[in-house]
């Protein structure tokens, strides 16, 4: 075999090997599903992403109705108790033992991507190659209290997450080490 042919075969073999190594960077449904599931395995969905201090008071004001509905739903779910101070029109909510286990964020599970619906053409953005992925998911490890009708009515995002076939979008990025959700 002439030297030029051997070099050509070696170069093709090297390209095939490198192409195999970069398969995690390809814009495929499998790679996007893996990236999203890796992210959600480490990021729970929570009623209060930044946490909630207890005891919690609901006083008259523009958000009182919504806050009272939310806190009452936690009471109905067996996580809190409510006391009413009629003299100053305040409802005070305290956690019980079950509520203390869920507090302060009240996480209700994590997403598991069940399918990719679509994605935008990957394009450079801020030094990364990015795409927006639309996906279907189901919730995993959902506690019993989060499945109550009162909690679902008080927290619309939770209700959406627990619906039959929820969808959402996420931005994914790569710089050559596979797709990931940018922080």
Explain how this protein is built:
The protein is α+β, with helices and mostly antiparallel strands. The chain has two domains: 24-45 and 108-174, no CATH class; 56-102, no CATH class. Helices cover 34% and strands 27% of the residues. The protein contains six helices and seven strands, in the order ααβαββαβββααβ. The strands form two sheets. Strands 4, 5, 6 and 7 form a four-stranded antiparallel sheet that branches. The radius of gyration is 24 Å and the shape is elongated. It starts with a helix and ends in a 9-residue tail after the last strand. Residues 3-21 have low confidence and may be disordered.
Short description:
The chain has helices spanning 3-21, 29-41, 64-76, 97-102, 149-154, 156-161; strands at residues 56-58, 80-85, 90-95, 110-119, 123-125, 128-140, 167-174.
What structural keywords apply?
disordered N terminus, 183 residues, 7 strands, three-stranded antiparallel sheet, alpha+beta, four-stranded antiparallel sheet, 2 domains, 34% helix
Strand content: 25-35%
> How many domains make up the coordinates?
2
Helix and strand content put the structural class at alpha+beta
Q: Radius of gyration, rounded?
A: 24 Å
Q: What is the CA-CA span between the terminal residues?
A: 52 Å
Multimeric status of the protein: single chain
Gross morphology: elongated
């Amino acid at each position: 075999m002439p030297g030029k042919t051997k070099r050509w075969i070696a170069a093709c073999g090297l390209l095939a090997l490198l192409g195999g190594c970069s398969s995690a960077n390809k814009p495929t449904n499998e790679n996007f599903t893996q990236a999203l599931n890796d992210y959600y395995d480490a990021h729970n969905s929570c009623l209060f992403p930044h946490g909630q201090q207890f005891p919690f008071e609901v006083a008259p004001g523009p958000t009182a109705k919504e806050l009272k509905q939310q806190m009452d739903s936690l009471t109905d779910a067996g996580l809190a108790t409510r006391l009413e101070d009629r003299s100053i029109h305040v409802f005070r909510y305290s956690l019980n033992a079950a509520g203390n286990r869920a507090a302060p964020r009240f996480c209700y599970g994590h997403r598991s991507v069940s399918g990719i619906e679509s994605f935008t053409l990957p394009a450079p953005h801020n030094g990364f190659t990015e795409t927006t992925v639309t996906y279907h998911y189901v919730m995993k490890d959902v506690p019993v209290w989060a499945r109550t009708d009162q909690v679902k009515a008080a927290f619309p995002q939770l209700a959406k997450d627990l619906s039959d076939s929820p969808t959402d979008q996420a931005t994914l990025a790569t710089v050559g080490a596979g797709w990931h959700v940018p922080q």
